[in-house]
């Protein structure tokens, strides 16, 4: 199985496992998030270690092994991106399975198990879909609960509409799917929040960078990533210019 097929298959199966856990009806909202994270993480990590034993692994739900810093190939996974949205049975949560090679997000898949009426959707680097054209008034996707001040300021400068949404993966995929045009985040994330989404975005011809325009670099000793920008390439220069003014 190719790396791309593996990433997509694991993301899809993990999503189905998460739906099964939620549909059991046996857990409170708080317990559901923990159980979902643990179940998906166990599956993803065991499968990746079985299928790619020579590669390193970084997961939100695993103790970090810094031996990964000596590896060229590192799988970076987020078993449930958007735990709150998952527990609330919303659509805007995701499963991330990404592969960084020498620090670059080169391959991956993002599953949206709740999308399409619960039938689910997987976007992957090796099977890009057509990105719809942007409307006249741009749309900027932001956090449902804590929109970053920089994003709000840039949206005002661009005359863009704010679109609240849950997980980072769902936000990134919304640009690909034509539900939004710009994803600007400056409130802090970790490598697992953006590795797979960034890889999928780049494979679809989108711009993906830090908010100063520098590349996104993964498999770092400190996995904290303060910010990122994902948008159509034709909007990147203007967005970066507005950020620089702040």
UniProtKB/TrEMBL annotation:
The record's GO molecular-function terms, alphabetically, read:
3'(2'),5'-bisphosphate nucleotidase activity; metal ion binding
Q: Pfam families this protein is in?
A: Inositol_P
Cofactor(s) needed for function? Mg(2+)
Q: Which domain of life is it from?
A: Bacteria
Has UniProt tagged this entry with the keyword Metal-binding? yes
Give me the residues that bind Mg(2+), please: 60, 78, 81, 193
Q: Does the keyword ATP-binding apply?
A: no
Keywords, A to Z, come to: Magnesium, Metal-binding
One GO biological process term: 3'-phosphoadenosine 5'-phosphosulfate metabolic process
Q: What is this protein called?
A: 3'(2'),5'-bisphosphate nucleotidase CysQ
Q: List the source organism.
A: Novosphingobium ginsenosidimutans
């Amino acid at each position: 199985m190719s790396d791309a097929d593996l990433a997509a298959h694991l993301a899809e199966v993990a999503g189905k496992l998460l739906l099964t856990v939620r549909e059991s009806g046996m857990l409170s909202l708080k317990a559901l998030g923990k159980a979902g994270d643990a179940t998906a993480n166990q599956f993803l990590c065991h499968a990746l270690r079985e299928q790619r034993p020579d590669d390193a692994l970084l997961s939100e739900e695993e103790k970090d092994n810094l031996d990964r810093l000596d590896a060229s190939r590192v799988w970076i996974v987020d078993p449930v991106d958007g735990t709150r949205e998952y527990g609330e049975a919303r659509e805007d949560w995701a499963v991330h399975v990404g592969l960084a090679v020498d620090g670059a997000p080169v391959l991956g898949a993002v599953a949206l198990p709740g999308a399409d009426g619960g039938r689910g959707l997987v976007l992957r680097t090796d099977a890009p879909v057509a990105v719809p054209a942007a409307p006249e008034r741009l749309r900027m996707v932001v956090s449902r609960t804590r929109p970053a001040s920089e994003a709000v300021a840039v949206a005002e400068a661009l005359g863009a509409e704010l679109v609240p949404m849950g997980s980072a993966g769902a936000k990134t995929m919304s640009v690909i799917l034509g539900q939004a045009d710009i994803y600007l985040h400056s409130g802090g994330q970790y490598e697992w929040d953006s590795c797979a989404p960034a890889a999928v975005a780049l494979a679809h011809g989108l711009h993906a960078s830090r908010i100063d325009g520098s590349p996104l670099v993964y498999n770092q000793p400190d996995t904290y990533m303060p910010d990122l920008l994902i948008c159509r390439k034709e909007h990147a220069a203007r967005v970066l210019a507005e950020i620089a003014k702040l």
